[in-house]
Each structure stands twice: as C-alpha cells, then as structure tokens.
Amino acid sequence: MNNYQLPEEIRHLLEQSNSRQPEEFTDLIREGGYIPPDNELLIDAITALSMGKNVLLKGPTGAGKTRFAETLSNLFNQPMFSVNCSVDLDAESLLGFKTLAYQGEKQVIEFVPGPVTNSMNYGTFLYIDEINMAKPETLPLINGVLDYRRTITNPFTEEIIQAREGFGVVAAINEGYVGTVPLNEALKNRFVVIDIPYLQGDQLKQLIKDSTALDDDRTIDLFVRLSGDLIQAVSQGKLSEDAASIRALLDACDLSSLIPAKRAILRSIIDKLDEDRERDFVRNLTETLFG
C-alpha cells in the first residue's frame, strides 16, 4: 500500500482489520457518511484504492454508491472531481474544451480542463457515476487513464498528461436500467468490483438520524420497516428497484418531519413509480404501517 499517504488511524485499522470491532471502523466515518452493512466493503475499497487500483461500485439505485464514494474521498482526505455519464457524454465532457478568452485586448484560445484532466493534474480522486450510461465508443478515450499507464494524450492540446501521485478512480454502475449498456471486458477488467447492497436495520436507522430532519424514533422505526418490506418485494419481483431506493426513502423521511408521513411517501416514492400495480402495492404497505 504505497500509492497514497493514508491517514494514520486508517492505516492502523487496516493492518489489524481482522481483530477490530465494527464500531472502530464506523467511528472514522464522518456524520452523514456511508456506513456499510459489512465492514469488509469498507476495508476492501480502502485497500484497493491505497494500492492504486480503480474501484467499481455496483448496486441498485439509491443504495448509497455516491455517498460511499464521497466517504472514501473523505477518509483519504482527497478532493474528488465527478463525471455524470449519459448518452451525450463526449470527449469535451471528460477532458475539457477550448474557448475564446481575452488577454488584455487580445483575443486568445484557452483550454478549460474537464474532470478527468483536473483530477490527473491535481492528483485527486475521479468519480464516474453511472458509467454504463455512456456510449461504448466514448469511454475507450480514457483506457490509458484507467490502467497502469495513468496517462492520456489530450486531443485538444496534444499534451501528454501523466496523473500525479494521489490520483484514483471510483466508478458506479446500475445494471439493467433503461439506457444502460453492458461494460465491455476491456473496461471492466480495469476495475476491482464491490457490490453495494441496500442498507437495512440499525444502520439504516442511523443513516436516517444523521441525514434527515426526522427525529421521532417511532416514525423512524416505521420507515425502516417500510424499507425492509420494499426491498423484500423487489427481491420477489413484485416491485422495480426504484421503489426501494434509499435516496427516495431519505427524501420521504425529510418531508415527514413537516408533513404527514403518508403524504411524504406519496411524493417521494409512490408517485415516481410508472405502473399502477406498483403504486397500489406501496400505497397499501404505507397504509398498513402508518395507518
């Protein structure tokens, strides 16, 4: 582990990870950070990044992948530039673009760096969200960034950029959604994959307390039960994964600090669903729990 200067307390816990208690790891995570359901997820992600490997977070929508990436950035004391992938992602979105500027009264062409070039030049983390939303012909532009070379030739300036020490890549993927494409093997093989499950039980309860305005324990417990029922329904094929989004659940918790919980769930979860059958299912669950 010699690619990064890990904070001493994290390095010490990693070296003795087999003998450490879960609370010793979660104590390192700042309030509102991602507390994984299994400490091995945190240990393995930190280990991979500390060895200079790219990490791919795989899991359902709203499971906390972006929050996990932000938590890793904080643990390493590393700023993080972000790329949000879509079918419109192109070289300029990744690397930057040329624009007209003025030096005194003289008009010149300047290059404005993008997230990839910025993170390489400054030696920070790069987060690539929904990486499988990008067109297959776009991402090969950064293959050299993602392998041992850590370099790219900027097509706009012809400059060869070598990533500074500290550069690292975390990406996230939602599989099977409309608009996504399978990652090709050349790209997938450049990552260590970590599967992120939904948070449940006490960890979800703590996340609600840390991340929302809701502070009523009884209502929080009901939301934790609702989330568990939604996750079970998703696993049984009764609901789409969108219905069990932790992000949507947190929105509902926030709203329910000021409006009735059933209405908060309607706005944050139910009305987002496309099918009447799914909306009725969640509405009935809500009525059963919240009365």
List keywords for this structure.
single chain, 291 residues, alpha/beta, 5-stranded parallel beta sheet, two-stranded antiparallel ribbon, 13 helices, 42% helix, globular
CATH architecture of the largest domain: 3-Layer(aba) Sandwich
- The share of residues in helices is 40-55%
Q: Which CATH C-level class of the largest domain is it?
A: Alpha Beta
Measured by DSSP, the beta-strand proportion falls in: 15-25%
Order of helices and strands: HHHEHEHEEHEHEEEHEHHHHH
Shape: globular
Work out the count of structural domains.
2
Mean pLDDT across every amino acid position: 86
Number of helices: 13
Largest sheet: 5 strands, parallel
Question: In oligomeric terms, what are we looking at?
Answer: single chain
- In the predicted model, the low-confidence regions spanning at least 5 consecutive residues are none
Pairing-aware structural class of the strands and helices? alpha/beta
Determine the N-to-C terminus distance: 53 Å
**Annotated CATH homologous superfamily of the largest domain:** P-loop containing nucleotide triphosphate hydrolases
CATH topology of the largest domain: Rossmann fold
Domain AAA+ ATPase: 51-197
Protein name: AAA family ATPase
InterPro entries: AAA+_ATPase, ATPase_dyneun-rel_AAA, CbbQ/NirQ/NorQ/GpvN, P-loop_NTPase
Organism: Virgibacillus sediminis
Tell me what you see in this structure:
There is one protein chain. The chain is α/β, with parallel strands linked by helices and 291 residues long. It has two domains: 8-195, Rossmann fold; 201-290. It has helices at 8-15, 22-26, 39-50, 65-75, 91-95, 115-122, 143-146, 185-188, 201-211, 217-235, 246-256, 261-268, 276-290; strands spanning 54-58, 80-84, 96-103, 106-113, 125-129, 151-153, 160-162, 168-173, 191-195. The protein has a five-stranded parallel beta sheet with strand order 2-5-8-1-9, sandwiched between helices. A two-stranded antiparallel ribbon has the order 3-4. A hairpin with a 6-residue loop joins strand 6 and strand 7 (160-162). Helix 9 (201-211) packs across helix 10 (217-235) and helix 10 (217-235) runs antiparallel to helix 13 (276-290). The longest helix is centred in the last third of the chain and has 19 residues, at 217-235. It is globular and about 65 Å long. The N and C termini lie far apart (53 Å). The model has no long low-confidence stretch (mean pLDDT 86). InterPro entries: AAA+_ATPase, ATPase_dyneun-rel_AAA, CbbQ/NirQ/NorQ/GpvN, P-loop_NTPase. It holds the Pfam family AAA_5.
